[in-house]
UniProtKB/TrEMBL annotation:
It comes from Streptomyces canus. One of its GO terms (molecular function) is oxidoreductase activity, acting on the CH-OH group of donors, NAD or NADP as acceptor. InterPro entries: NAD(P)-bd_dom_sf, Sc_DH/Rdtase_CS, SDR_fam. Pfam families: adh_short_C2 (PF13561). This is Short-chain dehydrogenase. The keyword Cell inner membrane does not apply. Keywords: Oxidoreductase. One of its GO terms (biological process) is fatty acid biosynthetic process. Belongs to the short-chain dehydrogenases/reductases (SDR) family. The lineage of its organism: Bacteria, Bacillati, Actinomycetota, Actinomycetes, Kitasatosporales.
Length: 256
């Protein structure tokens, strides 16, 4: 049984340690900043260390860590770095991802495997390392999937990307089942079409931008800050009885 907390403290992450991958730009940078603003000590990981340092300059609670999640030794070093500094890991946000070819016939088997390595194998390994680490209480693992793990978005999307994001949802449910007894919660966040560096071409093209608006119930793409509440809900004690779930934030795209 968990003890109730005052409503004002539900979303507080004071005293918690968090890891955010893919934190050098876009949603990942936003995630790291939001968790830090809520009180967490955040280890922001990505390959572009210069961008991470700029992010860390904005908040002393953010610690930049150069990390290529495709490399096993980098993943291990990331977790060890967090443990060396704070002695525990309470929150993991598996956000780092790469996209493959849009057309399946243009994608080689090796390229398909590479995308799964970053988008699915790396999150599994980091989740396992996190689950084995000390935590201050209930631990939260958040896998950043996508609506492309739930529905087809042809002619956009891609075979490897969609497969990896669907696989991440399956992984989320399985790990939630295996680790629930230990108090580790595992959930997935499935964003829709948000304006980020990765979707710059999509929103920069008038025809494709209208396509997003036409097929989204709110008739617009999302802004990064509109994921703040969902992230804090899954990371904090506000979701203490929530695990194995997919929280879809897509402006109504998948409700059509």
């Amino acid at each position: 049984m968990s003890a109730p907390r005052p409503a004002g403290d539900l979303f507080s992450l004071k005293g918690r340690t968090a890891i955010v991958t893919g934190a050098s730009s876009g949603l990942g940078a936003r995630f790291a900043s939001v968790l830090a603003q809520a009180g967490a000590t955040v280890f922001a990981a990505a390959r572009r260390i210069d961008r991470l340092k700029s992010l860390a300059d904005s908040d002393a609670r953010i610690h930049p860590v150069a990390c290529d999640v495709a490399v096993e030794s980098d993943r291990t070093r990331l977790v060890e770095t967090a443990l060396t500094v704070t002695g525990r890991i309470d929150i993991l946000v598996n956000n780092a991802a790469t996209s493959g070819e849009t057309r399946a016939e243009d994608e080689s088997a090796d390229a398909f495997t590479d995308v799964l390595g970053v988008n699915l194998t790396a999150p599994f390994h980091l989740a396992r390392l996190t689950a084995e680490a000390p935590a201050s209480g209930g631990r939260s693992i958040i896998n950043v999937s996508s609506i492309l793990g739930l529905v087809s978005a042809a002619p956009l999307g891609g075979a490897s990307y969609s497969a990896s994001k669907a696989g991440l949802i399956g992984l989320t449910r399985e790990l939630a089942g295996q680790w629930g007894r230990s108090g580790t919660r595992v959930n997935a966040l499935a964003p829709g079409w948000f304006r980020t560096e990765m979707t710059a071409d999509l929103f920069g093209d008038e025809r494709s931008s209208r396509w997003v608006e036409r097929n989204t119930l709110l008739h617009r793409g999302g802004d990064g800050h509109e994921l703040d509440g969902a992230l804090l809900f899954l990371a904090s004690d506000a979701s203490s009885y929530c695990t194995g779930q997919v929280l879809t934030i897509d402006g109504g795209w998948t409700a059509r």
